[in-house]
Design goal:
The complex is a heterotrimer. By secondary structure, chain A is of the alpha/beta class. Helix content of chain A is 24%, strand content 16%. In chain A, helix 4 packs parallel to helix 19 and helix 12 crosses helix 13. The chains are: A alpha/beta, B alpha+beta, C mainly alpha. The structure holds ligand MGD (2 copies), iron/sulfur cluster (SF4) (5 copies) and molybdenum atom.
């Protein structure tokens, strides 16, 4: 035994400290934090135990927030590209805020008064899209979007066109009750702490956790079962599960009949404009065949007993079949059997079969019942909710493929068949969802409005088209938007297509723009495809013509807080504050922090004093809105209506009583969700730890697509317009309408280009289906044998954490990981330098072998590679010598046949960037070839001269 | 008393939250700080940490499992790091916590040599050995709310893979978890008797399925049954 | 283990110095091999202490925070490092006493007593140094009795060679230097040879499966959790190239044993040549010590990528 000894413990001098609560923004999870300050300096950041998102825990990035605040890479003041220097050289001169804003106002006012769409304003993963979108709408440009188009719009769109809520922020797993959880293609997700909290609960409760992922790290590490799937084949796997469920009659018939469109009748009239549309009554209600009466009846009606299967004929002689009949006919086909898909997916047939049986067994034999009285929208009162405790979650492993939309729909189909949505143990909606399918917001597509000078758009720039008429195209079928969203190229691009903006603008396709504002997105580096190409495009100048010598993108404004790679390309840099220095509203109008049982929103407020000449971007936006005299920001006298951002947040009402923040509304702060503006609202949030929650009553928590009590509250809160059944869509009529357009049968806009026609006919399948990733359809398997994907590292948030001196010690470089046996077969060894080549180009990096990666897949951590000189890193920093991006290999455009139009390398339905379709070849570098390639320029510094 | 941690390898996702929270708390704590960073913006960034996460793969593809293993001081009962220390800077408290008194340390590294688990790192700026303090300045700080009197790493861990308590108290969560699921000690043959206990990764039992109960049928068969069923109604 | 030159120099230099002191006392007390002529006592004592002191000073260079070094005496009860310090500190007054007693032609008893004490302290110090390494279970190559035995014998061997140039009286009487040195040389060589063969075969003492008792399947490191080196990798993850090790081994054997042996076997009594033998031996021992560190594998390597050590 060791002799022990006591010595006095030296405790912190807490008398010198104060604790302030705010919201983390080291990532978009938005956990609650308690910041301990000592003499104005941050001493410690801790999770806020009362916070609905993180319940006290904190991730690595969250704790490292202190090092972000004290980062050397913070921008210090507004800067102008140094006259006479080239764009991209990173040489700047300081400019005052007044001069900068005056200059920008002049430029923008001119654009707005002449051709408003010549302003493109695109933003990254900010949490203020409600404000930036409003700003763009008021400006009158349709060319606005956030990052969703390259991030995960496939998940959002598939959910919102199928189940009324979605993976990616608008739903959450009922971790406490689920007994079987399947995770498809997720490394970290936005809900990073909640998922971790949830996985722990699963494990503790003895639930089974299956991870479907080509790579086994992170969450997949602790899965009970790991299925190393071949990238891009999840849709096939899911449909094989559907095949099993249907052919074994393992589905929840009552759920399907009441809550989904399984029994709706689809017109079978090939070659006509009605083919594949729903049989509807005179007022447009979808019809079902009532089994009691043998008559057609309103599918939304109260007392119906719909036939799930069958083929019928209307008195007019129209042949119709139920959706489920169509689905069964499709999926019971042998080509969807586990045996048929096994090889392609890399998952054995018996494993797939077992997966389906396990899900069904849990769903139907381990059913949960919670005694709770609730009333449905048809007026019927129930005394319990029934849970089929199977849940799923999916993210970019599914969405970042060109078949992601349909794949995600296939996942929702499994959930619907099992009746495993919105009940106990299921994947549940988070307020403000569920919403009608799709949500009733149409994107602005009126060319006259869009072209009108000094006129706000009549509708928001982004929305959810229901039919070809909703596309944003001109009379010739050309896109109205610079990113081609809502054109035939990407009809359901509900989040825009930010990854196409620079390419299209440089190609003046469909038109040139004047000014591009980039906010919080590193578009010259990790958030773009074809990074080297995009850097060249940002530098590109007209060679001939009236504008010879001028940049093809004439003016680039970058609003960033740090010295990113993109900042060096800016003509004007408007430096932002950090998340601990400003006010922010995390609003229900945006991507809020609600959980399934609670509505929630949150704020940030300045925790540390500003020590630089920087301004919160939202403050700048409100200021500009006043200067540009946007109607919503200007009072009757023509003066700015709001004193600034905080004033705007308090007093702006979208509709009466509904503003950015839902808590402490009403003059005295006594109202929740809806109420008049409360001048003291910010303080009330601060007093409450920077967040607001409203807990749903028991009777409001479940089955909310059909729950009257809930929906009445949701109407009051303006989440939805009316109480009505929201019927989940196994079969999507909007999608069928686009297909009809492709087939030339639609009574309305139709594409003229054969490429568009072919794509619409092929990919717009009203039932979820699978097709191979677009860029590989004609590819030579042997030329590019490996799938190449990235994963989110848990300790790094894209590019912006490299400046964090703690986090970069954990990950300052990355490797290309390859399955050890595959590597051995090719004579590669760990630490070999290799060339990785795609159809776009090649890179050199270092290989590492591992067991936990599918044999035909290579992968690396995302966004670790950095350009020398950025992020305040010293020349030769590891991130530039041992860190690399796959982005150089990913083309933003699909390979084309001669004569074809160039199309975006994206999902043909939603325009979601198809990052993970990438295929590569890997070869050993010759001896002496070492170090990451390509290298970019000598060290540039983005600091302005004094 | 034997204070220490259980670390659950069944739920640890390797997120480094504990490591960074530790670095943050202890970096400026009066018991362990500072924890310096070397070349923070340079080409070879490193620094002193008291808790590091290592990931391993167990078994061959495709039967492999990834196991994340956070490692900090295990507060061994037979802490040779203490007995070898020539100055008495390293010591074990009666509650089991192994600490370094920076005022006595000569930076000889000898204790680090004696530690099998890589739990000690020299602060090269002041030449003093640094190690996990079990956040002794949190767990005994009575001015903190009771629920916060926990090590920083335990508070941060999003999967609750870390628990803190007294292994001598059979009622404590750590003792019970260790009794139920503790792995045999790392490098047990060395005889250090680590107090911290690692809980073994586990696998949920397979769901019992009965394929025969729901036999597969052909489309025609099914459709006729289903449609028939509807008609019969 | 990272070979720290300060420590290597310390053990070699002090080792020889202490060995020299031992021989000084033993030969002068017993008169064996012609004993030590009185005029040589002081120079030998001085050289012994010089080598010892140089070594000890060098060892403090290894301390990152030497201002607290005085505290290193406090843990005599448990720490071999502390014991080493205490012995080292005790050696100087006793050696001084021995020197004074030798000078003043004091009666034999106190001289023998002081000499005996000096021998005990010197041997004890050598043993302590060896035990500093041998007590570490974390480094299997060091955790063996061969290590302290080696330190003592190498000290005596190098000390003997260091003593030879001073033993002119004996040589004058016909004593062969080889006769005196052969025994320690042989003993040192044998212990090193045994050590070498003992650890030549890579019989893993610890595997990654011991370090991480998950079960029997193969375990591989996927990620160490940091991109660049740490204190641990600097200290414990020395990578020794095979060819380099071979060269050092040849140097250790050649300079440490063969060259001295050849010189001695030549029968020369040239002080210069004998000194050269001693210097060669010391250089050889430096190489040997360097290998002793470089080849020693700490168990913590198992957590950094080694599958076995
Ligand atoms: N190969 C590959 N590429 C990918 C992906 C992939 O999986 N693989 N993923 C894609 C996805 S989903 C996304 S969302 C993108 C993300 O890519 P980006 O949106 O570029 O994300 P970040 O690199 O974090 O950069 C955002 C910018 O915001 C700045 N910033 C940070 N905090 C603030 C602030 O408070 N205010 C302001 N104004 N600026 C701030 C940072 O300095 C940085 O320049 O990457 C995409 N790129
Ligand atoms: N720490 C941290 N958290 C983040 C971010 C970050 O940068 N760092 N970024 C945030 C952002 S912007 C986003 S969009 C989210 C994204 O969150 P995730 O969806 O978790 O993002 P990815 O890392 O792209 O994860 C994709 C996963 O899918 C797997 N995968 C790839 N292809 C396939 C496939 O075809 N099938 C299947 N089944 N799996 C596949 C990959 O191996 C990887 O594990 O994370 C957010 N959270
Ligand atoms: S997950 Fe981490 S970085 Fe993201 S908000 Fe939460 S604590 Fe902050
Ligand atoms: S883990 Fe290492 S430092 Fe901690 S008590 Fe055990 S031996 Fe000492
Ligand atoms: S480094 Fe410090 S704590 Fe460690 S053994 Fe030396 S004196 Fe003791
Ligand atoms: S107990 Fe404290 S010092 Fe130890 S690893 Fe955890 S946070 Fe670090
Ligand atoms: S915080 Fe928890 S889950 Fe994350 S690495 Fe540490 S122990 Fe593992
Ligand atoms: Mo994203």
């Amino acid at each position: 035994m060791i002799k022990t000894r006591n010595q006095p413990i030296k405790f912190e001098d807490t008398a010198q400290q104060e604790v302030k609560c705010t919201t983390c923004y080291m990532c978009a999870c938005r956990c609650g934090i308690e910041v301990t300050l000592q003499e104005g300096r941050i001493r410690f950041i801790k999770g806020n135990r009362k916070h609905p998102v993180n319940q006290g825990v904190l991730c690595a990035k969250g704790s490292a927030g202190i090092m972000k605040q004290y980062s050397k890479a913070k921008l210090t003041g507004p800067m102008l590209r140094k006259p006479g220097t080239e764009r991209g050289a990173g040489e700047f001169v300081p400019i005052s805020w007044d001069a900068a804003l005056e200059m920008l106002t002049k430029r923008l006012a001119h654009i707005r008064a002449t051709d408003p769409k010549q302003l493109a304003f695109f933003t990254g993963r900010d949490q203020m899209q409600a404000l930036t979108g409003l700003w763009a709408q008021q400006f009158g440009t349709p060319n606005w979007a956030a990052h969703g188009g390259f991030c995960s719009v496939n998940m959002a769109a598939a959910g919102l066109y199928s189940i009324g809520y979605s993976f990616w922020e608008f739903g959450a797993v009922d971790w406490d009750r689920t007994k079987y959880f399947v995770l498809w293609g997720v490394a970290e997700d936005h809900s990073s702490n909640p998922i971790k909290i949830g996985l722990d609960k699963l494990k503790r409760n003895g639930a089974k956790f299956v991870s479907i992922n080509p790579v086994r790290t992170g969450y997949s590490a602790i899965a009970d079962q790991w299925l190393p799937i071949r990238p891009g084949t999840d849709g096939l796997l899911a449909l094989a599960i559907v095949h099993e469920l249907l052919s074994r009659q393992l589905f929840d018939a009552p759920f399907l009949a009441r809550y989904t469109n399984s029994a709706w009748l689809v017109i079978d009239a090939p070659g006509t404009s009605k083919d594949g549309l729903f049989l509807r009554d005179a007022v447009g209600q979808p019809l079902i065949r009532d089994q009691n009466t043998g008559q057609f009846a309103n599918g939304l009606g109260a007392d119906i007993d719909p036939a799930l299967f069958g083929e019928f004929q209307t008195p007019e002689g129209v042949r119709v079949r139920t959706v489920l009949t169509l689905a069964a006919s499709r999926y019971i086909d042998e080509r969807y059997s586990p045996k048929a898909v096994a090889e392609r997916c890399g998952v054995a047939a018996d494993v797939i079969e077992r997966l389906a049986l396990e899900m069904a067994t849990i769903a139907f034999e381990e059913t949960i019942e919670i005694p709770v009285r609730w009333t449905d929208v048809w007026g019927k009162t129930h005394d319990k909710v029934v849970g089929r405790p199977v849940s799923m979650y999916a993210m970019r492993g599914v969405s970042a493929h060109s078949n992601g939309f349909q794949t995600c729909r296939a996942l929702h189909l499994i959930q619907m068949l099992l009746g495993a949505l919105e009940g106990p143990g299921n994947f549940r909606a988070r307020a403000p969802y569920p919403r009608p399918i799709p949500p009733l917001i149409l994107p602005e597509n009126n060319a006259t409005t869009i072209n009108a000078p000094n006129t706000p758009l009549g509708k928001p720039p982004l929305g959810f088209p229901m039919r070809p008429e909703d596309l944003a195209i001109d009379a010739d079928g050309k896109p109205l938007r610079i990113d081609h969203a809502y054109s035939w190229e990407s009809p359901l691009a509900a989040h825009g297509a930010m990854h196409m903006v620079i390419t299209n603008a440089v190609n003046a396709d469909p038109y040139p723009i004047d000014t591009l504002i980039l906010f919080m997105a590193n578009m010259a580096w990790n958030s773009t495809m074809n990074t080297s190409g995009v850097q060249d495009m940002l530098r590109a100048k007209h060679e001939t013509g009236p504008n010879a010598g001028e940049h093809k993108i004439p003016f680039l404004v970058v609003a960033d807080a740090f010295e990113s790679e993109t900042v060096q390309f800016a003509d004007l840099v408007l430096p932002d504050t950090t998340y601990l220095e400003r006010f922010d509203a995390i609003s229900l109008l945006d991507r809020p922090i609600s959980e399934a049982d609670t509505v929630a929103d949150a704020i940030r407020h300045p925790i540390v004093a500003l020590d630089r000449n920087v301004r919160p971007w939202q403050e700048v936006l409100v200021d500009l809105a006043g200067r540009l005299k946007f109607p919503a920001f200007t009072n009757a006298e023509g003066n700015p209506k709001f004193k600034g951002y905080t004033d705007f947040i308090v007093n702006y009402e979208k509709v009466p009583g509904i503003g950015f923040l839902a808590g402490w509304r009403g003059k005295d702060g006594s109202k929740s969700l809806r109420g008049e503006p409360n001048p003291d609202q910010w303080n009330r949030y601060i007093e409450n730890g920077a967040f607001f929650t409203h807990h749903w009553a028991e009777s409001e928590k479940w089955m909310r697509l059909w729950n009257r009590d809930y929906q009445q509250k949701a109407v009051e809160a303006a989440f939805i317009l009316e109480v009505e059944p929201i019927i989940m869509q196994i079969y999507s009529e909007p999608i069928q309408k686009f297909r009809l357009a492709g087939q030339g049968l639609y009574e309305g806009p139709k594409p003229s280009d054969p490429q568009d026609r072919a794509r619409l006919s092929r990919y717009f399948d009203p039932l979820p289906d699978w097709y191979p990733n677009l860029e590989n359809i004609d590819a030579d398997e042997k030329a590019f044998p490996f799938h190449a994907i990235t994963q989110r590292p848990m300790v790094m948030y894209h590019s912006w954490d490299t400046q964090n001196v703690w986090l970069r010690q954990i990950m300052a470089g990355n490797f290309l990981y390859m399955n050890a046996a595959s590597a051995a077969a090719r004579g590669f060894a760990s630490m070999d330098w290799v060339w990785v080549e795609s159809r776009l180009g090649k890179i050199r990096c270092q290989l590492k072998t591992m067991e936990g990666v599918e044999a035909n897949t290579v992968w690396t951590w995302n966004a670790i590679g950095k350009q020398t000189g950025a992020w305040a890193l010293e020349p030769g920093a590891s991130e530039s010598t041992h860190g690399f991006l796959l982005n150089h290999l990913i083309s933003e455009q699909l390979p084309t046949k001669p004569g074809d139009r160039k199309l975006t390398n994206s999902d043909p339905i939603t325009g979601q960037a198809a990052w993970y379709d990438l295929k590569v070849n890997v070869t050993k570098a010759t001896a002496g070839e070492e170090g990451v390639w390509p290298q970019f320029g000598a060290a540039t510094t983005v600091k302005a001269d004094a | 008393m034997r204070l220490g941690l259980t670390i659950d390898l069944d739920t640890c996702v390797g997120c480094h939250a504990c490591a960074v929270a530790c670095k943050e708390w202890n970096g400026e704590s009066l018991m362990a700080g500072p924890l310096p960073d070397y070349k923070p913006y340079g080409n070879d960034p490193s620094g002193a940490w008291l808790n590091r996460i290592r990931s391993f793969e167990y078994g061959d593809y495709p039967e492999n499992k990834t196991v994340n293993v956070p490692m900090s001081c295990l507060h061994c009962e037979e802490a040779a790091c203490v007995t070898v220390c020539p100055t008495g800077a390293s010591y074990k408290r009666p509650d089991g916590i192994v600490l370094v008194d920076p005022d006595k340390c000569i930076g000889c590294n000898y204790c680090a040599w004696a530690c099998p688990y890589g739990a000690r790192e020299l602060d090269q700026t002041v030449g003093v050995m640094k190690k996990c303090t079990l956040c002794v300045d949190r767990i005994y700080d009575e001015r903190l709310p009771e629920e916060d009197r926990q090590p920083a790493c335990v508070l941060a861990c999003p999967t609750q893979a870390r628990m803190f308590g007294d292994f001598d108290d059979p009622q404590s969560s750590v003792a019970q978890a260790a009794a139920a699921r503790g792995m045999s000690p790392m490098l047990a043959d060395l005889g250090y008797k680590p107090v911290n206990s690692y809980l073994a990764p586990r696998c949920a039992p397979d769901v019992k399925v009965d394929a025969a109960k729901s036999p597969k049928k052909s489309l025609t068969q099914l459709l006729s049954e289903w449609v028939g069923a509807s008609k019969a109604n | 283990m990272r070979p720290a030159f300060s420590v290597i120099f310390f053990t070699v230099s002090s080792g020889a110095g202490l060995g020299l002191l031992v021989w000084l006392v033993v030969l002068s007390a017993t008169g064996l091999y012609g004993g030590v002529s009185p005029d040589m006592v002081l120079p030998m004592l001085a050289l012994g202490l010089l080598l010892t002191t140089a070594g000890l000073l060098s060892s403090t260079l290894h301390l990152a925070n030497p201002k607290n070094a005085w505290r290193a005496f406090s843990q005599f009860r448990t720490s071999w490092l502390s014991r080493e310090g205490v012995f080292a500190a005790a050696i100087f007054p006793v050696a001084g006493l021995f020197g004074v007693l030798s000078m003043v032609d004091a009666p034999a008893a106190p001289r023998v007593f002081a000499g005996g004490l000096l021998v005990l302290l010197a041997l004890g110090l050598l043993y302590c140094t060896g035990m500093i390494y041998a007590c570490l279970k974390t480094i299997p190559r060091w955790h063996t009795r061969l290590v302290p035995a080696g330190y003592v014998l190498m000290g005596l061997y190098s000390g003997a060679l260091a003593a030879l140039p001073f033993l002119t009286r004996g040589f004058a009487e016909g004593v062969s230097p080889l006769a005196l040195a052969s025994l320690p040389l042989l003993a040192a060589f044998i212990i090193k040879a045994v050590y070498f063969f003992r650890f030549r075969a890579p019989d893993a003492r610890f595997t990654l499966n011991d370090a991480l008792p998950l079960g029997k399947k193969t375990i591989r490191l996927l990620d160490v959790g940091h991109t660049h080196g740490t204190f641990l990798t600097d200290e414990f993850y020395f990578k020794l190239a095979r060819s380099h090790a071979q060269r050092l081994r040849v140097a250790a054997l050649g300079l440490g044993f063969v060259v001295p042996l050849l010189i001695l076997a030549s029968g020369t009594r040239s002080v210069v040549l004998l000194a050269a033998a001693a210097v060669s031996c010391l250089l050889g021992l430096l190489a040997e010590r360097w290998l002793f560190f470089a080849e020693a594998e700490h168990v913590v390597r198992l957590y950094h990528g080694a599958s076995r050590i």
